[in-house]
């Protein structure tokens, strides 16, 4: 009872911790903050020069309507007072300034003809690109926190509502900050349905395949208790919720329920032998406890390889998996076994009260003839042990073929495809891009001793022209140079003092966009909608071309240039992640092998589970290639996941095999008993794991859905390998070792006999 009270207190504590979880979808979920890549992008660009804009897009038949422009001006004036807003840029400002020059009145004219003349003469295309669209930009700092962005977005929405736009116009609030906030909300709202679908699917599977025990649905609430503990730990340890880490919970339900099923299955087996309830608990923990604990450790070692990923959200995924499997194990061992103990006692008392022999009744259920699943597993084992070499040759050849074609599986590098394609915020952002054109940039950070040096400004001007005129996917440039030339009659001043004088006359807001202190400057090269037009690989090629141009048209001596930007960051990260997937898998294999060797101090027990799962890794690559699937940042972690899940099945089977051998069974008999007695529990846990992963397919995030689809295939392959490949591998190697030991004994006996004969003859 004390255990259940402690569990209840931990639930209350976990619910408190869960409230501390924060959603995260920013650059720091893709890039390690300590890396040079992040330092260049975040410290040199985002914090010094970058701005973001919440864009108010107006669609309508006539955007020169005075009532519309007056409403836009009211919204403009309201948004300017929002804390954290740097500036607000809108068509109303241009029209009021132009009207002030013409009439002396700084207001929106009532005459639509005057407005149209002003628009034709003065309006930038970025504010009114056509006759049906107008844009207002609420500019904020590029490094603004998620909380700050959310507050500014909320106030911007309020300013639009306050302005009372005419009813014939459509008002859309979009931009990167609005999209990121909507993305966080979507991730948060999709978590509950995923867990709910996972639980429902598992209930169905448990009811169908775990019917040989009482309280067949009990493993599900036990593992959900472990998930609650994991949520609490996640909040207290400040692990953020990302589009990858949210997939950890259905995964953990699939993994964690195996522990609950194994303990449940074994204690029912012990109770079926007529054991006293307390004795059954002891025997259960004695026999299945170490096996499940070893499986847990090896699963954890498989997941450790995730920490080699350069992507923080993959590392967070690994942290959640490690914490989660420990929580689910503790829940199964302490709470699960305790609950079954009390349920059994209550069941016994109830039957005694009804004057029935509870033990006899229980035995009638537990000692029934083998069912269909028992017979199927027995026949599969008999077949695999009859034709071991045929199975191993086919498995090995298909594995090698899969590993070969795995290198040809394409990579999905368009990050916009990772999010729900029908998400309104994404559609609004795409609409904005289709009207205004792309606004993606390569950002060149220039470090110098003197950013007022005329020679440096001349180089920036020459290099900008060279790139815009000579590179087809560079459409424009922006820097401090264009402003200096505009303020100096179209020319770059001849002395640094003249340049500094012009700097002093510039508004701070304008100057801060391009220079910082006296030693850093930024040159922005507009690459349009390069993410869609070129893809990340094309952006990387363009970035490399600019690097080559910098060698040919180098900056003045002493000045250095660093190329950064969001597109560059994403390419480097996704390229490193997907290209390093095989290394991650190999490291996982090494960790698992070393862990098994340290635990068992037996090469056979260390080698057998690893070789079985290595075959599954090869099969997985082949299936991905032949089904046309693509690697994403999540599916690149599948090697570690297969090792973690599949090794558990193999270890549990191996533990039961050697338990039966210790009782005097031959290798074939021991494997048959292990397959049948452990088979039901492994099939039950395996299928519930498959259906737990299947819930991910319902995710609105294509990256998560794709991950769920592939993991369903891979866990199924791991189950198949456990019953088809693992038995002949273990039996062949074990028999080979026994033969070697027997030969050594025989040789030793012969040697001893020879020495005895020699002594007797002398």
Automatic annotation (TrEMBL):
<feature type="domain" description="SSD">
    <location>
        <begin position="583"/>
        <end position="732"/>
    </location>
</feature>
<feature type="transmembrane region" description="Helical">
    <location>
        <begin position="191"/>
        <end position="210"/>
    </location>
</feature>
<protein>
    <submittedName>
        <fullName>Hydrophobe/amphiphile efflux-3 family protein</fullName>
    </submittedName>
</protein>
<keyword id="KW-0472">Membrane</keyword>
<feature type="transmembrane region" description="Helical">
    <location>
        <begin position="288"/>
        <end position="308"/>
    </location>
</feature>
<feature type="transmembrane region" description="Helical">
    <location>
        <begin position="217"/>
        <end position="237"/>
    </location>
</feature>
<feature type="transmembrane region" description="Helical">
    <location>
        <begin position="607"/>
        <end position="628"/>
    </location>
</feature>
<feature type="transmembrane region" description="Helical">
    <location>
        <begin position="387"/>
        <end position="405"/>
    </location>
</feature>
<dbReference type="InterPro" id="IPR004869">
    <property type="entry name" value="MMPL_dom"/>
</dbReference>
<keyword id="KW-1003">Cell membrane</keyword>
<dbReference type="InterPro" id="IPR000731">
    <property type="entry name" value="SSD"/>
</dbReference>
<feature type="transmembrane region" description="Helical">
    <location>
        <begin position="582"/>
        <end position="600"/>
    </location>
</feature>
<feature type="transmembrane region" description="Helical">
    <location>
        <begin position="320"/>
        <end position="343"/>
    </location>
</feature>
<feature type="transmembrane region" description="Helical">
    <location>
        <begin position="634"/>
        <end position="652"/>
    </location>
</feature>
<feature type="domain" description="SSD">
    <location>
        <begin position="225"/>
        <end position="342"/>
    </location>
</feature>
<dbReference type="Pfam" id="PF03176">
    <property type="entry name" value="MMPL"/>
</dbReference>
<feature type="transmembrane region" description="Helical">
    <location>
        <begin position="243"/>
        <end position="261"/>
    </location>
</feature>
<keyword id="KW-1133">Transmembrane helix</keyword>
<feature type="transmembrane region" description="Helical">
    <location>
        <begin position="707"/>
        <end position="733"/>
    </location>
</feature>
<dbReference type="InterPro" id="IPR050545">
    <property type="entry name" value="Mycobact_MmpL"/>
</dbReference>
<dbReference type="GO" id="GO:0005886">
    <property type="term" value="C:plasma membrane"/>
</dbReference>
<keyword id="KW-0812">Transmembrane</keyword>
<feature type="transmembrane region" description="Helical">
    <location>
        <begin position="681"/>
        <end position="701"/>
    </location>
</feature>
């Amino acid at each position: 009872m004390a255990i259940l009270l402690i569990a209840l207190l931990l639930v209350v504590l976990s619910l408190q911790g869960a409230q501390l979880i924060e959603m995260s979808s920013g650059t720091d979920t893709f890039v390690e903050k300590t890396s040079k890549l992040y330092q260049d992008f975040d410290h040199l660009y985002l914090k010094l020069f970058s701005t973001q804009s919440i864009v108010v897009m107006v669609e309508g038949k006539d955007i020169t309507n005075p009532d519309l422009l007056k409403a836009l001006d009211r919204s403009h004036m309201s948004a300017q007072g929002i804390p954290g807003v740097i500036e607000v840029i809108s068509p109303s400002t241009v029209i009021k300034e132009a009207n002030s020059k013409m009439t002396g009145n700084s207001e929106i004219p009532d005459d639509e003809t005057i407005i149209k003349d002003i628009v034709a003469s003065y309006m930038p295309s970025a504010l009114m690109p056509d006759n049906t669209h107008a844009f207002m930009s609420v500019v904020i700092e590029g490094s603004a926190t998620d909380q700050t962005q959310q507050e500014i977005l909320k106030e911007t929405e309020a300013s639009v509502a306050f302005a009372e736009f005419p009813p014939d116009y459509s008002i859309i609030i979009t931009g990167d900050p609005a999209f990121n906030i909507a993305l966080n909300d979507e991730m948060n709202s999709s978590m509950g349905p995923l867990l709910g679908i996972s639980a429902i699917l598992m209930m169905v599977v448990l009811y169908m395949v775990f019917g040989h025990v009482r309280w067949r649905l009990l493993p599900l609430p036990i593992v959900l208790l472990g998930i609650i503990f994991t949520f609490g730990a996640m909040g207290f340890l400040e692990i953020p919720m990302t589009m990858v880490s949210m997939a950890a919970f259905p995964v953990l339900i699939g993994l964690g329920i195996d522990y609950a099923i194994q303990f449940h299955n074994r204690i029912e087996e012990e109770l079926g032998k007529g054991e006293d309830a307390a004795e059954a608990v002891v025997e259960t923990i004695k026999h299945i406890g170490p096996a499940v604990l070893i499986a847990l450790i090896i699963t954890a070692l498989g997941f450790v390889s995730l920490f080699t990923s350069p992507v923080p959200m993959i590392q967070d995924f690994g942290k959640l998996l490690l914490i989660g499997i420990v929580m689910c194990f503790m829940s199964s061992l302490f709470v699960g076994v305790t609950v079954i103990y009390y349920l059994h006692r209550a069941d016994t008392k109830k039957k005694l009260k009804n004057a029935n022999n509870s033990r006899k009744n229980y035995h009638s259920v537990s000692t029934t003839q083998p069912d269909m699943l028992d017979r199927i597993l027995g026949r599969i084992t008999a077949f695999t042990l009859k034709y071991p070499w045929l199975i191993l040759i086919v498995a090995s050849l298909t594995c090698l073929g899969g590993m070969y074609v795995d290198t040809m599986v394409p990579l999905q590098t368009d990050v916009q495809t990772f999010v729900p394609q029908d998400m309104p915020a994404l559609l609004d952002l795409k609409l904005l891009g289709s009207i205004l054109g792309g606004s993606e940039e390569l950002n060149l950070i220039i470090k110098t001793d003197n950013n007022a040096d005329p020679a440096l400004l001349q180089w920036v001007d020459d290099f900008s022209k060279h790139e815009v005129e000579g590179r087809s996917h560079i459409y424009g440039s922006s820097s401090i140079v264009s402003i200096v030339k505009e303020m100096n009659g179209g020319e770059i001043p001849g002395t640094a003092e003249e340049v500094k004088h012009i700097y002093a006359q510039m508004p701070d807001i304008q100057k801060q966009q391009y220079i910082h202190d006296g030693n850093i400057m930024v040159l922005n090269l507009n690459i349009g909608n390069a993410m869609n037009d070129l893809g990340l690989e094309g952006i990387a090629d363009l970035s490399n071309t600019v690097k080559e141009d910098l060698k040919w048209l180098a900056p003045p001596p002493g000045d250095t240039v660093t190329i950064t930007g969001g597109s560059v960051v994403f390419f480097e990260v996704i390229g490193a992640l997907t290209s390093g997937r095989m290394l991650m898998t190999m490291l996982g294999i090494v960790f698992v092998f070393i862990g098994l060797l340290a635990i068992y101090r037996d090469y056979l027990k260390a080698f057998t589970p690893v070789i079985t799962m290595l075959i599954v890794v090869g099969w997985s690559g082949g299936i991905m290639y032949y089904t046309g699937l693509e690697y994403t940042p999540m599916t690149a972690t599948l090697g570690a996941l297969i090792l973690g899940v599949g090794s558990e099945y193999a270890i549990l089977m191996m533990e039961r095999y050697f338990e039966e051998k210790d009782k005097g069974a031959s290798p074939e008999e021991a494997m048959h008993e292990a397959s049948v007695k452990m088979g039901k529990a492994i099939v039950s846990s395996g299928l519930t794991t498959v259906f737990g992963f299947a819930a991910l397919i319902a995710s609105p995030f294509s990256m998560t859905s794709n991950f769920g689809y592939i993991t369903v295939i891979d866990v199924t392959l791991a189950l198949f390998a456990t019953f088809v490949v693992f038995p002949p591998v273990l039996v062949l190697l074990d028999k080979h070792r026994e033969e070697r030991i027997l030969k050594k004994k025989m040789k030793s006996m012969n040697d001893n006999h020879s020495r005895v004969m020699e002594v007797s003859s002398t």
